[in-house]
Amino acid sequence: MNLNFATLADLQKALRDRDISATELTQHYLTRIEALDPALNSFISIQAEAALDAARRADECLARGNARPLTGIAIAQKDIFCLQGQRTTAGSKMLSDFIAPYTATCSEKLADAGAITLGKTNMDEFAMGSSNENSYFGAVHNPWDPQLIPGGSSGGSAAAVAAGLCAASTGTDTGGSIRQPAAMCGLTGLKPTYGRISRWGMIAFASSLDQAGPMTRTAQDAAILLEHMAGHDPRDSTSLNEPVPRFSEGLSNNIKGLRIGVCREFFTDGLDPLVESSIRQALAVYESLGATLVDVSLPHTPYSVSAYYVIAPAECSANLARFDGIRYGHRCLDPENLQDLYQRSRGEGFGEEVKKRILVGTFALSAGYFDAFYHRAQKIRRLIKEDFVKAFEHVDVIAGPTAPTPAFPLGEKAGNPVEMYLQDIFTISASLAGVPAMSIPAGLANGLPVGLQLIGNYLQEGPLLQAAHQFQQATHWHTLTPPEAL
Amino acid sequence: MNDLVNETTLVELSTLAALPFEPDKSKATLDALNEVLALVGQMQSLDVSNVRPLAHPLERHQTLRADSVTETIDPSALSQNAPLYEAGLYFVPKVIE
Asked: Are A170 and A193 in contact, with CB atoms under 8 Å apart?
């Protein structure tokens, strides 16, 4: 077995069969991180000692025969999840020295299941970005070509898995931040139904949109991780009180008769022809597996980016008001008075994209503009949700591209924010509607990964994962790894 | 669409958002804000007069719980993150002259 790119499922078996120890596996990844990450910058911090301690305890459990489902599996966590006693930065200067006083529920659940955290991954500051160029800790480079962006905002989590620096990782998705980097790095990334995974201990960007999820090599691995991340949490008032199915069971059932909606609004002028070709071929694979393709329309999709860039900044302007330089976070030197302390601390602590979104959100919520912007955006959000509700009366899954292009060069869109925002045009509508959606590898365009997006109905992550798994049984795209010496 | 934000409104927004107004960056900031607002202005072409706003994607109400302390955090874990903390107090510049 090639440990670098072994799946989580294969590693579970290898650890159980004692073909490899948790300590060997953890050390293997730490060695690779040390050798390869300087060129990728996918990690903000590494917890080598803590990871090796956890690995030794995992080996004891494995020896005693009382291992838990993820015992010994070494993963990386986006640096937006609080881990008690560890630095948690959200990719921001504001939190560059912040030591989390408690652990996020979903990270705690993963640890309870036996997972080992190797370190915290790089990200766009406060998850605001689609290229991972907005991090205070520097841009992340795509393992497929270090001159290219890895996608964002969970770009570090994507690059780390794609480069074989960990078995899997956690990400968060507000408008596409799991799916788009998964697409650009050749991974499987799942944004579950809004509320499926607790947001407690996950640093907030836009609370009605934020959702955590797994970033993995396969749909099977995503199912395994999701089982241990999801579940009701009384500490998060938006956490869904719904049973968590065993997602990894039933993946092998065939998909004959599955109705796949092909959304016509996802095939627009801005779609790269090579990406479109890969997606069309992927749809043909589904037909060969017995699925039926059905033309569907989500007519309000063209308004999704507009509505999103009101709702998300409005919520971010409220959420980020807590960073005032008093109880935690960056504080400016020698403030003249309290107002000066607030303004300079925030001015110095936040990056330009974050400040811009706070100002946009402040504008959208301000007197005189609230109805024309925020209220209107919420109405459009309902129309977008209703589009999905109507479509799912006729289909089981909706398919289309995850992103309009493959990964693009670092710096290419840095001066054109609107073009950057349009990177998420196919992912944002599922975020606004709160339905589960995932990206799976579906081909190459000029040697770069292309992601197929699959969108499911509310709480239907199971069928979604099954459709993804069946595609991966019939194709090899998910097995491809970055070229060169990685 | 005409620019919605000018320098006067930028000063007001900066104050509301507790961000510094930086005159040397104001043109770039105004350009960036107005570009985003022009993008979101596309919403105005849609008739939404009979549509109810949607705040929660699953239209569920936030759950409430009893107003009682359910968990506590060791104050030392919090104070280590405070820029200026002493004797259980967070220090700020003098507010009352």
From this structure: no
